[in-house]
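Researcher: Checking consistency across runs. Here is Mitochondrial carnitine/acylcarnitine carrier-like protein again:
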Amino acid sequence: MGDLAKDLTSGTVGGAAQLVVGHPFDTIKVKLQSQPAPLPGQPPKYAGAMDAVKQTIAAEGPRGLFKGMGAPLATVAAFNAVLFSVRGQMEALLRSEPGAPLTVSQQVVCGAGAGVAVSFLACPTELIKCRLQAQSALADSGSVGVAMKHGGPMDVAWHVLRSEGGVRGLFKGMVPTLAREVPGNAVLFGVYEALKQYMAGGSDTSKLGRGSLMVAGGLGGAAFWLFVYPTDVVKSVIQVDDYKYPKYKGSINAFRRILASEGVKGLYRGFGPAMVRSVPANAACFLAYEVTRSSLG
């Protein structure tokens, strides 16, 4: 089995594991990110992550924590296949000879290149996911476009294609998506490789156990979010913004307005659930990827 096919298969399995483990945390993150700023003297819709969990389960049942999972589940194969395959092909280009290990800095370059490629899949997928996840948080916002009730991923996609500029509408938030995925994946794969080499005591990491792979993957995922989280907040608010009466004129405008109205803490709404999610989700992803790839010979 060729390296490309191995990366395609292993990336798909890793992505599925990441999605199942991490999606409920992601739902709470998006709800906290997208809830409207409260009026003066009034409390926010959600007091915090646990309050968002309680309100979601009370209103929608446990299934509410998995809302919006259809869109990324439908594309998880393509997303992770592209991520790990592009990274694998870049690794092959940078190797001095077949099988030679790469340095941490070379893995950073590979991660950045993979981030560019996956952005074109991530943007429309996350727009649909965020619209579904944010419905309840935006229900009282008074904005008809974003507060309307969608029946599922295809309903959101059809609405955007019909009423928000066609295919171009599905790529709303592409700039912050690139600004998240490129540096984020550079950090993710760089930290992952650095930790593997540290635990292995050298560049040969082939003998590392599953526990070590989980630690490296989990901490790599945490580093991703630590590095790019404010960009993710900007992406989310732009993607759920009203098409006809937008609150934000673009990424820079959204960044400035959030900072002006809420301070730095506004750029970290939902940070807790994101960090809690990142470690187990990425640990599951990298473990599933490495084990699957190893089993393929």
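Researcher: Does this match what you'd expect to see?
Model: One thing to look at in this run: The first helix runs from residue 3 to 34.
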